[in-house]
Design a protein that fits this description.
46% helix, globular, alpha/beta, 502 residues, Rossmann fold, five-stranded parallel sheet, six-stranded mixed sheet, 23 helices
Length: 502
């Protein structure tokens, strides 16, 4: 299995090279040249195994330059009961809303209580093995832009990992207080955290610029270092996300909710498009998915794109109660466009260049037709998000976070608009306690709001009776280590200073 860059098909690399490098030198994203095909017999075998077994199968089909022993080692170290609170790190919960059956895929049982753990607990193991195969002796400098969850999950995954250093940038006013506290109290001798005076798109653009600045890469090379990424632009981040859709389908079959071969819909709250792209890649492998339902908040650039074929980031940016989706430049959409354009690097490069120069592009009629057939885009605002949290808790005693609520709301829109009752898997991406203020206001609008984040956590726990995840409860008395804030145009200087290379 080899990989191309979305913007330069002539660049062909192994999976280890793609993971170690993170992003192509031309700024494109690495994509597999082909997708393994799973037939009925493949799924019958997967039904009989657990999450780890399914992960090993998927990884072995994509990471063909890894040995069976290496893949086993990565999987066994990543998906432990101690880290995820059970044998299945991505369990399904079944509930109802207004008579609709909801199959909620809980992806937040890991050490940082967000879906990013599903990939970022295994990425450090994949990366260190990739470095040995491709850049033996070099240290990896992991640069991360985060809208909240990726930062903490990456910091936790990479803390004190040999031959790595990790620097995380987040928008100073664009994450929840809990997310900020999680990052700024991070332990580890090789970690660094800095806020930026801007939004997530500014952070993401800044990181990409640093990645593709030759002078910076040369300075790292002189000091036996190289850049890599823990964002979903890295293939090692995206690949693990394919696994939980395949595993969820197997769990649906095993629970009797569907029969093997039945189609499902997938509902994903998404900003950077990686999580929903993983489900699309799973469908290319043979997972029978009928519709990909893309749920956005008020930053509804993806909704408009799916409906019109025009991607236009020239719009108001909103800071919402679902901050991990406060994004106007969805990086992983580039991978979908590359596939839908017939793997045309020239076409993809043209669209991405227009996005940089004009802030917008329009895809061809052929691509529009495929997107309209396969995808549904919807969005809801903060008021609707809170109403959905409240209704789900009142009707079924199920407490969800602000991002999952967006997905549930858009799923309701989809069913009401289309009448399609195909069983749906809804990706639940974070614990409600990561966004306790908004969730508390939703379920108890008349309650007096406590002053501090952890008092809000205690109040939400008292009112709902739902358990506070241990990793969040343990943060209460931790002291912040990091408080740096930098201008966007000073990010490169900050990186060099943090690495001692200024």
């Amino acid at each position: 299995m080899l990989y191309n860059s979305t913007q330069n098909a002539a660049e062909v690399v192994s999976s280890a090279q793609a993971i170690a490098q993170g992003i192509s030198k031309d700024g494109g994203l690495f994509v597999p040249q082909e997708f393994p095909k799973y037939d009925e017999n493949t799924f019958k075998a997967l039904l009989k195994t657990d999450y780890k077994g399914r992960a090993k199968k998927v990884f072995s089909d994509y990471l063909t330059d890894f040995t069976e022993e290496e893949i086993n080692d990565c999987v066994e170290k990543a998906y432990t009961s101690a880290k995820f609170g059970g044998e299945n790190p991505a369990p399904l919960t079944f509930c109802n809303l207004d008579g609709k059956a909801l199959n909620i895929l809980e992806l937040w049982h890991g050490p940082t209580c967000a879906f990013k753990d599903m990939a970022l607990q295994i990425l450090p193991h994949l990366l260190t093995k990739s470095l040995k195969k491709t850049y033996d002796g070099k240290d990896a400098v992991i640069l991360v832009a985060t809208s909240g969850d990726t930062g903490k999950a990456a910091l936790e995954g990479f803390k004190d990992v040999d031959h790595t250093k990790i620097l995380v940038f987040y928008p100073v006013d664009g994450v929840s207080p809990m997310q900020k506290h999680q990052m700024n109290t991070q332990e580890g001798a090789n970690v660094n955290v800095c806020a930026i005076k801007g939004n997530f798109d500014d952070a993401q653009t800044g990181v990409k610029r640093i990645f593709t600045t030759p002078e910076v890469s040369e300075k790292l090379a002189e000091n036996n270092m190289l850049f890599s990424s823990a964002n979903s632009i890295n293939w090692g981040r995206l690949l693990p996300q394919i696994v939980y859709y395949i595993s969820a389908y197997c769990d649906m079959v095993n629970s009797g909710k569907i029969a093997l071969g039945d189609k499902i819909n997938v509902v994903v709250p998404t900003g950077n498009f990686g999580n929903i792209l993983a489900s699309y890649y799973a469908s290319l492998m043979g997972l029978p998915i009928n519709k990909f339902i893309c749920a956005s908040n008020s930053n509804n650039v993806l909704t408009d794109f799916i409906r019109t074929g025009v991607y236009d980031k020239n719009r108001n940016f909103y800071t919402t109660i679902s901050p991990s989706m406060d994004i106007l430049v969805s990086s992983n959409l580039e991978r979908l466009l590359y596939k839908l354009s017939g793997n045309s690097d020239e076409t993809t490069r043209d669209w991405m260049n227009k996005l940089k120069s004009e802030g917008k592009y329009e895809v061809t009629d052929e691509v529009k037709a495929v997107i309209k057939d396969k995808f549904f885009g919807g969005y809801c605002d903060d008021v609707q998000t809170k109403a959905t949290i409240s209704k789900l808790f009142e009707q079924d005693n199920y407490l969800c976070d602000t991002h999952t609520a967006v997905a549930v709301n858009v799923y309701e829109q989809y069913v009401n608009e289309t009448g399609d009752n195909t069983p749906a898997v809804i990706a639940s991406t974070a614990s409600p306690y990561k966004f306790s203020k908004a969730v508390l206001q939703a379920v108890a609008p008349e309650a007096e709001l406590p002053e501090t984040e952890f008092e809000m956590v205690d109040k939400l726990n008292e009112i709902t009776g739902t358990a506070v995840p241990a990793p969040l409860a343990g943060l209460k008395n931790k002291t912040s280590r990091f408080s740096d804030v930098t201008e966007v145009d000073k990010m490169q200087d900050y990186v060099l200073k943090a690495l001692g290379l200024e």
